[in-house]
Design brief:
364 residues; Gfo/Idh/MocA-like oxidoreductase N-terminal domain-containing protein; nucleotide binding; NAD(P)-bd_dom_sf; Dihydrodipicolinate Reductase, domain 2; GFO_IDH_MocA-like_dom; Gfo/Idh/MocA-like_OxRdtase_N; 2 domains
Length: 364
């Protein structure tokens, strides 16, 4: 086989539940292969590999250090708890491993900057696990949002992601543990809502972030279970984000422009794997009797044979392949938008901690 056509060998560092979905995606992607899996328990790694249909060629490791030392692993998918990211992502970069890192990428932007420095120093690619960004629908959303004739200028975005965790989730999940994923719902669900808002604003950072008074609910150890925030930009653009572990499953984007409107009801995980829809409206108004709409919203359906997580793995493996085989430089787009997402997460968290004080992001 031609060297340039050999699939990128990806190791899975950690056996978190979300790693099942990404393991499937790696096996579906034609330019990637699962090369190894590591856990702090060899038995757990063996069980994870067998229950997820790993190829016989995949190596099984009982420590994270072992997978770092494997010269036949090109890249690592890291779904470890957020508090462990800075250590293991840096160690992976120092071993020359490209990194697909679950979100939130770090506990704060200072930690992420250390990860990025290690990646830049060692010439490795980093991407986060925000899967919806790679869905074919997302490109169509962008076409509409930046069409001056159909959408006009963006004025407001509302994005939310909520789910109702059961008693076991709220007591035992790593996302509610301050020493594991201390950002709680904000770092997990809020990451998606913030990324959607930045996406609609062409990744321009807001100038301020303010937690909405009365919206925050913390658990007993002080981890965020529910919160909302308002964001503002120059020229009167605004946004609100909302995330919660205590409310029914909802994942919405509504973007309003001077000429049009866009709405997505399932932006994080589509209702169906094989197709996804969104609604647009341009120059909507009322009829003369004000009993119906003129130019009512229309639905657009995007059919796809590729799960969005496979699209993510394909793109990650493509970038790694360009570096490995053609001497390309790592793509700076991903660390740039990851950092901006983390900055907004940090600002909202700071506002929560400071009793809904307005936090400025200017000059950061």
């Amino acid at each position: 086989m031609d060297t340039e056509m050999q699939p990128i060998r990806i190791g899975v560092m950690g056996c978190a539940e979300i790693a099942r979905k990404v393991s499937r995606a790696i096996q579906l992607a034609p330019n990637a292969v699962i090369a190894a899996v590591a856990s702090r328990s060899l038995e757990k790694a063996k069980l994870f590999a067998s229950s997820n249909g790993y190829p016989e060629s995949a190596k099984i490791y009982g420590s994270y250090e072992s997978i770092l030392e494997d010269s036949e692993v090109d890249a690592l998918y890291i779904p470890l708890p957020t508090s462990l990211h800075v250590e293991w992502a840096i160690r992976a970069a120092e071993k020359g491993k490209h990194i697909l890192l679950e979100k939130p990428v770090a506990m704060n932007v200072a930690e992420f900057d250390k990860i990025v420095l290690a990646c830049e120093t060692n010439g490795v690619q980093i991407m986060d696990g925000t899967m919806w960004a790679h869905h074919p629908r997302t490109a169509k959303l962008k076409e509409f949002l930046f069409d001056s004739e159909r959408f006009g200028q963006l004025k407001n975005v509302h994005s939310c992601f909520t789910l109702a965790g059961d008693e076991d989730f709220l007591e035992n999940n790593i996302r509610v543990k301050p020493d594991l994923d201390g950002l709680g719902a904000l770092g997990d669900l809020g990451w998606y809502a913030i990324r959607a808002t930045l996406f609609a604003n062409n990744f321009e950072l807001p100038k301020t972030a303010t937690a909405i008074p009365g919206s925050t609910i913390l658990n007993e150890p002080g981890v965020i279970l529910t919160c909302g925030a308002s964001l503002s930009w120059e020229e009167g653009r605004t946004a609100t984000i909302h995330c919660s572990f205590l409310e029914n499953l909802t994942m919405e984007i509504t973007a309003i422009g001077t000429k049009g409107m866009l709405r997505v009801h399932d932006f994080v995980i589509p209702f169906q794997e094989t197709e996804a829809s969104f609604t647009t409206c341009t120059k909507g108004w009322f009829n003369k009797a004000v009993t119906a709409w003129v130019n009512p919203p229309s639905e657009h359906i995007i059919k796809t044979g590729l799960p969005q997580e496979e699209c993510m793995v394909r793109e990650f493996a493509r970038l790694v392949g360009e570096i490995k085989n053609n001497g390309a430089k790592p793509d700076g787009f991903w660390p740039s938008i990851i950092r901006k997402t983390q900055m907004v997460v940090d600002a909202v968290k700071e506002s929560v901690d400071k009793n809904c004080q307005q936090i400025s992001l200017l000059g950061l």
